[in-house]
Write a structure and sequence with these properties.
Growth Hormone, Chain: A
Length: 449
């Protein structure tokens, strides 16, 4: 949707405008959700011993942690179109905190599996983050805004790998047993998520000029019924082949990142004979690349758009995906720790730049159904993680073999990026909007496409 008064600059140290408050609250909320979502991953070696889990059972919990997110992401994008990102994020944070804290009651494989399944719903936070920044920022910076907010959110996958073992170790120093320690450690992200939900409601708004409810009351935004209903917007997105091409692309970049977040600590722990804390620190480096890598993907998307329009955004997406697949295949073959860490960082750079490049394209597919498009594409990331999870639950396939096969699949998926095309009219319209935003003329009539 083309809302008025979108920001054409990102002022990182500003909290005075609704655009920048939405930017900072959305990435921080996503960061916390990521922390809660994967908080148990770096402690899996302890959980495995406590609950007596097999490799297959661990693989099943990995699949469960990302499977439910596919469904929730599909729904949450359309929900954003209807009630706005402010309320959607508030409810997700507050309700999502409950299973995060409740996982500590698990005393068997079955109860642990159900807890990870429930926690997976908070992964839908990504869609709200991308939706909120998309409606707040103009075309000349929307790729950078989307990539940075998502990247700093994904950074939670790195900080949890580092902080959760430290929280666990701190509890042990207080005399808590390992069995109780991992359970108490998960209370921390749950409490912080709940508080963040209340703050999101208090300090943000849906759009530059106000909340969706108020905009509709003033006649500045169509009602969330009839032509703009949930079913019609989702249907419009689902009928577009480009949306499903991006679904596959995102499955092969964000889906891979989710998989690595789930297995990295235990992979380094088992294959390089490291301590749990050291393995967690190394695994955390993968997620910490989000500090700048995903932003770079969005920045390059905006730069390619300056010179080649929407075609440039698509070309950059293909390049990033291809490099990701090649880097992953090389990483899978490393048996020396230093080389494995180096290749992991190169792979991490490209996987996260590919994610930023993907959502540098998403806002231009269908403005009328922005939430539905973002939801479907975002769900692709989790669908990819579910598919990859089956590689790592098999007792007959090693982690190295699974990573190699995954790299080959990414290379094939990169070809789907080339299916994303735009009509000459849309290309011209978006080129004009880019130039207008770049020149500072961001005001315009509210319209839907």
């Amino acid at each position: 949707m083309n809302l008025r008064n979108k920001a054409n600059r990102i002022r990182l140290f500003s909290f005075s405008t609704p655009q920048m408050r939405a930017f900072h609250f959305s990435w921080f909320a996503f960061h916390l959700c990521f922390f809660g979502w994967f908080g148990i991953a770096p402690l899996m070696a302890v959980v495995r011993d406590d609950l007596g889990l097999t490799k297959t059972q661990i693989g099943n919990t990995i699949i469960a942690s990302v499977a439910i997110t596919v469904i929730v992401r599909l729904a949450i994008g359309v929900l954003c179109d209807r009630i706005g990102p402010r309320l959607a994020y508030t409810w997700l944070l507050c309700l999502g905190a409950i299973p995060v804290m409740s996982i500590g009651f698990a005393d068997s494989f079955e109860s642990f599996l159900m807890a990870r399944l429930a926690i997976g719903a908070i992964g839908a936070s990504f869609v709200i983050t991308q939706y909120h920044t998309s409606v707040m920022f103009a075309p000349n910076v929307v790729g950078t805004a989307n990539a940075t907010s998502a990247g700093w959110g994904n950074l939670g996958g790195g900080t949890t790998q580092i902080l959760m073992p430290l929280i666990f170790s701190g509890l042990l120093m207080l005399g808590v047993s390992e069995t109780l320690g991992w359970r108490l450690a998960m209370v921390v992200p749950g409490v912080v998520m709940f508080i963040a939900g209340l703050c999101y409601y208090r300090f943000t708004q849906d759009a530059p000029d106000g909340n969706f409810k108020d905009l509709r009351a003033r006649g500045e935004l169509p009602e969330a019924s009839g032509e703009g209903s949930m079913s019609s917007t989702f249907g419009a997105a689902a009928r577009d082949i480009r949306v499903w091409a991006l679904f596959v692309v995102y499955a092969a970049c964000f889906g891979v990142e989710l998989t690595i977040n789930n297995i990295a600590a235990i992979y380094f722990f088992d294959n390089f004979d490291l301590t749990l804390a050291t393995a967690g620190m190394i695994a955390g480096l993968f997620g910490l690349m989000n500090l700048f890598a995903r932003t770079m993907g969005g920045v390059f998307s905006d730069l390619f758009a300056r010179n080649a329009g929407l075609k440039g955004r698509v070309r950059w997406l293909f390049i990033a995906m291809l490099c990701e697949g090649v880097a992953l295949m090389f990483f899978s073959q490393m048996h020396v720790l230093a080389l494995a860490i180096g290749l992991m960082l190169v792979f991490s750079l490209f996987v996260q730049m590919a994610e930023g490049a993907t959502f540098g394209v998403v806002p231009f597919i269908n403005r009328r159904a922005l939430g539905a498009v973002a939801g479907i594409v975002g769900a692709g990331g989790n669908a990819g993680a579910v598919a990859a999870g089956f590689l790592f639950r098999s007792e007959s396939i090693s982690y190295q073999q699974g990573l190699f096969y995954l790299g080959a699949a990414v290379i094939l998926a990169s070809l789907c990026a080339l299916l994303v095309r735009f009509s000459p009219e849309v290309e011209a319209e978006e080129a004009a909007a880019y130039e207008q935003a770049a020149s500072g003329e961001t005001r315009g009539a509210l319209s839907l496409r």
